[in-house]
Structures are given as C-alpha cells and as structure tokens.
Amino acid sequence: MNLRKIAPLYEISDKDKQNIRSLKDSMLQYKKEFVDAFYEYLERKFDFTEQIPFERFLVHKEKLGIWYEKFFEASFNNAFYQFLINASKKHVDLRIDESAINTMFSFVRRWFHEKIFLIINDDYKRKEILVSVHKFVDINAAVMSSAYHDEQIKKFTSIFSLRELVVSFSERFMFFMNSILVLILVLLTINAAYMFFMELADTYQHGSGKLLITALGSLLILWVLIELLHTEIQLLKGGKFKISVFIGVALIAFIRDLLILTLKHEASGEGIYFVLASILILGLIYWLIARMEKMDNAKRRG
Question: Where are its TM segments located (predicted)?
C-alpha cells in the first residue's frame, strides 16, 4: 500500500481533519470507557484474554489508549502510519486472527457513532463529522489489514522478505537521487535567473532589440527549469509523472532556437523551416498528451 496516496484515495480534506480534531476534548473523557468496552466486547467474541499472556495484554491495552488519543489528533503522517503498522505486526506475533481485527474496527465504528450522537445535537454538523470519522476509521482499518497481510507473508516467504529489502533499498536510493536532482535544478534555476537579469541589464544599457530577444530566450530557459523543478518536487511528494512537461521542455528549446536564428542574418531558410516544423509537431504532440493527462485526472477524480 502506498501510504502517500492513502489520504487522497479516501478523499480526506482539511475540513475532515478539523472535524475529527474538534471531537478530541469531548471524546477523551470517554477514553477509559472505550478501552473497557473494547476488551469486554472482544472477550465475549474471541476469549481475548485467554489468547494473550497477561503482561502482553496490559501492553496491548495501553497501546489501545494511545491509539484512541492519536485518532482524534488526525495526523496523517508517517509516525501515525508506522504506529498502525507496528500494531499489526504485534497482532501477528500474538496470533490474533484477522477476523478479530475486522471485528475490532466494526466495534470502533459503532462505538464512535453512538458517542458522537450524544455529543453533537445539530443534525447537519453531526452528519458532516460522522462522514469524516468513518473515513478515518476506514483508513486505519485499511492500513492495519494491509500491514497484517504483509507481515503474515513475511513470516512464511523468505522471497517476499528479500523483495521487500530490494524494494525498500530502491525506494530510498530513488529518493536520494531525486533529492540530488532537485538540488541541481535549484542551482541551475538560480544560475539561469542570474543570466536573465544580466542580459536584461545589458538590454537597458545598450537598447538593443537583439539583446532583448536573447534575454527572452534566457527567460524561456528559466521557465523550463522552474517547470522541471516543480515536477520533480511533485514526484517527491508522491505525485504522478507527467510526460507533457518533458515534451514542453523540448518545445521551449526549439522556440528558443527560432528566436536565436532570427538574429542571425546568415541563417538559412531550410534551418528556419526545420525549426518551425519541429515546433508544429512538438506542439501537436504536447496538446495530445496534455489532453490525455487531463482526461485521465478527471477519470480518477470521478
């Protein structure tokens, strides 16, 4: 499971986070009641205390209280996801059946539902908050179920463990290389900006139209670098790779060549026609790809 995409997948908004956090003070007073009711329910269904040694049962109970508090902080960060993953690993170690985990979240959903009805009187506000809470419960259940499955497979498949090691190393290496690329793009962007302002200053000093066109070419280079930097940052944040950006880079390069060719009196007509044809073809390709990416995004949102 890609943890970077799980919040957008469940359409968690800033408003949802605010709704969950608004419950924190009211719900924390029911923390002990929740923990007691939780284990009483599991005891009836699965003889929970008989399956777990007493010392580990107390640790499990303590962790449940911590999870209860973290839930209403609505922090969608790596620390919280890691907490859920570690909890799933402990469930596998304790040989808690997966059906028990699904039952746990079924109980959590109903228990939260009842308390929210007691706390909030306004029907509209209650419905809005319930939707937010249900989304977050679903995310918790999805992360824990996925981690539970992965941990079970790891215990029985050494190949899977090796695959996880390779994937983990590859992801870290890719992140490292992307970080270096971002740093290089930042330096290049700063240098391009410096060159643009220097050429712009020369234009004002000499009042030359040719220098103005040269400065415009440098501005196009600066724009390309900014677009590449923006795309690379989006990739680091888990965004989707966009081919249209790189087609746009090639298109801008040919446009700059056309500007330079117009300054050269010795430039042949064939060279200009070649550049114009390249711009036309790349422009058409850019339009088609950008249109397909836009349709794909609309389909994903739908």
Answer: 173-197, 209-229, 241-259, 271-290
